Amino acid sequence: MEYYINVEPNVYIYVEDINPTGRKTILFIHGWPGNHNLFEYQYDQLPKQGYRCIGLDLRGFGQSSRPWSGYSYNRLADDVRAVVDELQLRDFTLGGHSTGGGIAIRYMARHKGYGVSKLALFAAAAPSLVQRPNFPYGLPEQDVLNIIQDTYENRPNMLRGFGDLIFHNYVTPSLSDWVFNLGLQASSWATAEIANTWLHEELFNDLTEIQVPTLILHGLDDKVCLFPLAMAQKRAISDAELIPFEACGHFLFYDQLKRFNKELVDFIER
After folding, report:
1. Average of pLDDT values for 67-90?
2. Tens digits of per-residue pLDDT, 183-206?
3. What is the pLDDT of residues 166-178, one digit of tens each?
4. Partner of 96 for a Cys bridge, out of 45, 91, 101, 147, CB 3.0 to 4.6 A?
């Protein structure tokens, strides 16, 4: 089932609801610069095991509205809350990849984990994607500034460069092209504004407010959200389990597809 959910005047979030009668619900928040289709190989498999899978496109991405503004973590978390309210979701697992993981963490803090029984973080961009005086483990700020500049000057070239970073193991050229084309479906201004958000958003305090069981899946060879970010998440969240993925990059749900699905299902069933 497909929906367009109104989250503020003239802004609609696209949602795909797969197996609505499933016995347990997982709400997926995708990472930058893709859309809900990045979780295609979860949507293919998890409903076979009885799960309801819900994917949304963040504003500016995929089939959602493309407003000029509204790309702070607060606003994006509020968009998620509007989806939760409209679909009347309760007792669900919230899963977020990369920037989507950061948004999921802000949702847990800002909305007190409303409706969420478990949290799953996949290569999450938290507590900070960029290096800070008190946190030297992220990317250099200049790397993000380069992404923003390249987005405005040659977005396809920027996306190709990002695509070279996200996989550790070999993927076919056709799969790489597919991910590239998902990035092209986003608006250029949303792509740049999310990158600008990385420079200003910190989630150190948000992590400490998470009060539900949390699974952290993170590749040891991640070149985008470096593995020390996962270690910081584990230290800050009171009830968290960190599972490192060896020989695995940023897109761990492709690099180690079968293991990713198994670890997620095992967590939900505990």
Report:
1. 98
2. 999 999 999 999 999 999 999 999
3. 999 999 999 999 9
4. 101
Run of H or E residues at 168: none
| pTM summary value | 0.98
Both tokens of residue 21?
Answer: 């009668």
Tokens found for residue 155: 């977005």
Q: What angle do CA 247, 251, 254 make, to 5 degrees?
A: 80
- Residue type present at position 104: A
Contact 224, 127 (CB under 8 A): no
Burial pattern 208-225, b for ≥16 Cβ within 10 A else e, equals ebbebbbbbbbbebbebb
